[in-house]
């Protein structure tokens, strides 16, 4: 009987171990499948969060007619023309993410169709509210909506998907991403370094400049003001 019990226990533990290994393997495969490839070949000209936080995607400048591919496999849930996006394709993915491909010159996928990762879904264009030929790409961690409440910065997942590119394009993309990351870091450092002073009754620009070892002109330049008039409770960058 003890032998049978030991045999059953070994069998149970073996089954649990196999299930765990299968789960880990499936999770790893799923994570790899979630990586996004660059949707087109071009130059990054604008990133997420610019324009006062109103830019909800990534702009990639390219010649009109350049292929635009699905960054990940999925189902096309929208393929139409809007006054803002111009010709646009939106794809829903198995992980519930949605990606947007806007300002296209041509749409090659229709609503309801499925698409494979890397499949051409359209061509770069300059339609809708656009200045110059480029692809506007968005990533949403949830369903797209007008307020774009689920929009996130696509650069991190595109960085993970860089192994999908050939060596030349990979180097170009790495350089572009590093450049933007460095730029964002410098802006953050600049913001952290900015010290503000709240104007009090009786203060003058000369008094404030002298107290902070600046000239009046430097103080004006830092705050983009031309007049010498200041008012109580005004915030000045020092």
TrEMBL record:
<feature type="signal peptide">
    <location>
        <begin position="1"/>
        <end position="31"/>
    </location>
</feature>
<dbReference type="Pfam" id="PF01551">
    <property type="entry name" value="Peptidase_M23"/>
</dbReference>
<protein>
    <submittedName>
        <fullName>LysM peptidoglycan-binding domain-containing protein</fullName>
    </submittedName>
</protein>
<dbReference type="GO" id="GO:0004222">
    <property type="term" value="F:metalloendopeptidase activity"/>
</dbReference>
<dbReference type="InterPro" id="IPR011055">
    <property type="entry name" value="Dup_hybrid_motif"/>
</dbReference>
<feature type="domain" description="LysM">
    <location>
        <begin position="195"/>
        <end position="238"/>
    </location>
</feature>
<dbReference type="InterPro" id="IPR050570">
    <property type="entry name" value="Cell_wall_metabolism_enzyme"/>
</dbReference>
<dbReference type="InterPro" id="IPR036779">
    <property type="entry name" value="LysM_dom_sf"/>
</dbReference>
<dbReference type="InterPro" id="IPR016047">
    <property type="entry name" value="M23ase_b-sheet_dom"/>
</dbReference>
<dbReference type="Pfam" id="PF01476">
    <property type="entry name" value="LysM"/>
</dbReference>
<keyword id="KW-0732">Signal</keyword>
<dbReference type="InterPro" id="IPR018392">
    <property type="entry name" value="LysM"/>
</dbReference>
């Amino acid at each position: 009987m003890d032998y049978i019990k030991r045999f059953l226990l070994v069998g149970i533990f073996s089954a649990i171990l196999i299930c765990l290994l299968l789960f880990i393997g499936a999770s790893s495969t799923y994570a790899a499948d979630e990586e996004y490839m660059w949707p087109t070949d071009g130059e990054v000209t604008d990133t997420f969060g610019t324009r006062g936080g109103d830019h909800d995607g990534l702009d990639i400048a390219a010649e009109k007619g350049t292929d635009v591919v699905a960054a990940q496999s999925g189902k096309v849930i929208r393929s139409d023309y809007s006054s803002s996006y111009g010709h646009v394709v939106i794809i829903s993915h198995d992980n519930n993410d949605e990606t947007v491909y806007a300002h296209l010159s041509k749409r090659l996928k229709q609503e309801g169709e499925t698409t494979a990762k890397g499949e051409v879904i359209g061509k770069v264009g300059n339609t809708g509210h656009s200045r110059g030929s480029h692809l506007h790409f968005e990533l949403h961690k949830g369903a797209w909506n007008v307020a774009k409440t689920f929009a996130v910065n696509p650069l991190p997942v595109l960085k993970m998907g860089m192994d999908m590119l050939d060596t030349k394009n990979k180097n170009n993309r790495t350089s572009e991403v590093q450049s933007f990351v460095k730029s964002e870091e410098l802006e953050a450092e600049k913001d952290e370094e900015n010290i503000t002073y709240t104007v009090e009754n009786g203060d003058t620009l000369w008094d404030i400049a002298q107290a902070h070892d600046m000239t009046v002109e430097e103080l004006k330049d830092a705050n983009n003001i031309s007049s010498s008039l200041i008012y109580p409770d005004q915030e000045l960058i020092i």
